[in-house]
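Quick log. Single chain, no ligands specified.
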Amino acid sequence: MRALLVVLVAVANFGAQAQWLTIKTDNFNVHYPRSLQHWAYSAANELEIVREKVLAQQGRALDERADVVIYDPDNAANGFALPSTDKPMMALLATPPQSDSFIANNMSWQQLLILHEYIHLVHLSQPSRNLWRQHLRDWHDITDLLDAVLPRWVSEGYATLLESRLTGRGRLYDNYSESVVRYYAQQGALPTYGALNNGDKSYLSNSMAYLVGVRFLAWLEDNYGAQTLDAVWTRVQALESRNFETAFRGAFGKSANQLYRRFVVEYSYQAMQQELALPPTASQLWQTFSFDARDIVFSPDRSRFLVVEQDHNRRVTLGIYEAKDNDEAAEQFNMRNQAILAADPEDVPDIKPEVFPKKRLAQFNSHNFGGIYHPQWLNDKHIYFVAKTPTSEHTFVNDLFLWQSDTGVLKQLTRGTGIRRFSIIDANTIIAEVSRQGYSQLMKIALDSGELTPITTAKLGDVYDFPVLVENNSTLAYLRVSPNKRWQLVVEDLTGNLIDIVYLPKQHQYLTALHWSGDEHKLYFISGLEGHMKVMRYDLSSRKLETLPKNAKPLKQVLVHSQKVFVSYAAPDGVKLAQIVSPRWQVVRVSEPVDNAERKAQHKHQLPPAKIDQTAHEAVAYSASEQSYSIALSGALHSAAFDSVGVALKGQDVLRQLSWQLGIEKSINNGALLGGFAQLEYYQHNWKTTLDAGYQDLAPDKQSNAILGKGNEARFKQFALTSSYRFGDILNNVTPEFGVIRIQQGDTVWNGSRYGANGNLVWDAQQHGTALHVSASQWLGELNGFDYQVNLFAKAWHIPFYASVDSRYSNSLPISLGGGQLTSTSVSNGLNAISEPMLPYLFATGSRYLGYEFATSWQQGRPKLFYKQHQVDRSVIGQSYGIKMQSSLSKTVLGRAANFAPAGLTDLYFSAGIGRVEGHNMANENRVWLGVWYEL
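-> predicted structure:
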């Protein structure tokens, strides 16, 4: 006990270091780590400005203070919001977007992000005017969320609409976004109404909730008035119960599906007219990809090219392809057609495809969920690329890796640097855009020492992209943007620090994909004009700016290979790479230099220009005492034992440093169980301390199936206080643990302690992978025993396989087998009770248990086919097999938002299955179970 107290005091002292701080504005609680302090100061000011403007525009505001969490979990631009009538929350991810992103068109990343997420909260967190319904929402977080949620295209489309209306920027007015939607319309590929929410697995279809949703809602406002659309939100929370479709039909007189079909027709007609008005651009298809393809780079000898590919399941690969035509594929095609005609002379064989896919020479799969970004050739065999690496803070950061394509050897070159796009000076030196803690900066990086030398000044709000070395590495070209400005092309002489800004015509918006053609001494790039993309180039010697005509295709990248111009572009069936035939260059004359970004529309409630206001705010150490509360309902159906229900009061703070629940569980009808539980967990910077207490009054003979031995009534009391600290990162780690435990069964009491550790090892290469989890502990005092569990996962060609071993022993404390998951038995489940939903509670009891399980599925995260065997005191008690599934509902539904959700939306688990049990001492029969419960 003394040792445990020492650990708890250490935890308390560690927490006092205040890793997180809080700024309290008039309407927001802004929580942030100390490393993001300046970003948080500016965000706190912007939040109140956004709230004031949205209130004026909407006539709505939040009834409760909103929690705002600022953090940087994966070195990428994003954000999310969780609507709630009593605990609204939004998360702002500090890393700014790159120039080729759909969200790059903004007055500042911070302003756009805050506005978009705040609109979600105001739009979806309005209370119901049905008082009884609202009382239920106040006390039950799941009901609150279900009442708040609207179809994805509605919630995201509306937030995107106001992000654009109130800034004059955003995705509604973005040339690249418009180019994508317009081209898809020209191809007849706009999503159906049913696919608008989550896509149809075609390329970019998952983005259409934003891109098409916003344009449909803007069309509704333009044709029916903003008041009519606003009436839908009023009707959704009316005294009379209505879902979105009913509320929409009542406001517009027609269904959303009907009006969406009309919108698609009108928009597609306009898109076709715009295509006909464009001058023709002759191009020849050069390569096709089945889904996404980016970061295409030709090798130094130009005989091969690199490309990062991603399929619709988000599996990422880095491929090396031959640059020459695939004569072998063409020959095989001809031979197949000849064979068809030889067998059936009257048949009509396939016509020759426009291009045969180039031959793949090598492939590298993304490792450990890190992705692959921005590859560059060092030489013909060595390739640098960026991938995400896990940290000890439950986050990922971008680092540089070396892949030797001839041997397959992978080597990490940097640690925790935050690299994005880069250019290579030599094998040991690169120039890269480094993005950390919300700041973007160009740095020279020495790979052997890790030394970082600034090239540009780090200033919050400024973003850099596409650093490209030109003219024998003496000149650096890059893209840059500042708040309220537009993206600019900058050419800097590294020897004399001379800077030249290449201005584009005033009407241009969107600038990306900078590429250096050493043969021509010209910089190529892509710009946007009037909803179309254009390829442009700049001659460093003559300072002449040229352009090709506007292109109907949504261009992603421009490349020059042997003085031939290639462009990649997005298409519904995947990215394509084409060569522009006989490009017709035209000189561009810029009459006046323009720095400021053009606002495409004026709104009477438009936000003022973005301001990075880092005026210091009073900040206090984050306090876990501000808790959210919810009723937490659970239930289980077990054909082997009994059905049960549970009710609890659950609470936690927004960062989940302090979580707790207090509740009861009871069997239905047969009186087999009455249980209670109390759980408390404190977590701070990898330290976790838990208190767990439970009580069960169990009548084994009242269960649906008999147990081995006597079925006398049993009363159990359990208590455990444990503390642990995790070493390592989110994938590979080890966690020592120590705790004190008290178990009481009837009048017999066992007091003792437990020490041990658990660890994880993960290696994942997408197609193949392995993971190992090992847990072992020693039981001391009157418990006098041990336990260990080994869980092994492997996958081959994406097919998962699972194997596990569970062994427990005590020479004094009885070890029991049987029963499903109950919160009131969580202490025992981690010690002397083995959960098995296909058997009744206390089915078998002994001093030693050994269990094996083997399972497989057709895909990770899907139901498993399993076989399981149980041994008690070295005798096989029984075996079971069937199909089952268990998952964290909170994480499955909410994703990363589950880390900050209100109490009733977190720690929710689901288990279900059907199978058959067999054994010498039991009836061989089929059994089913279904359970939903909360577990800290």
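Residues 800 and 860 are 6 Å apart (CA to CA).
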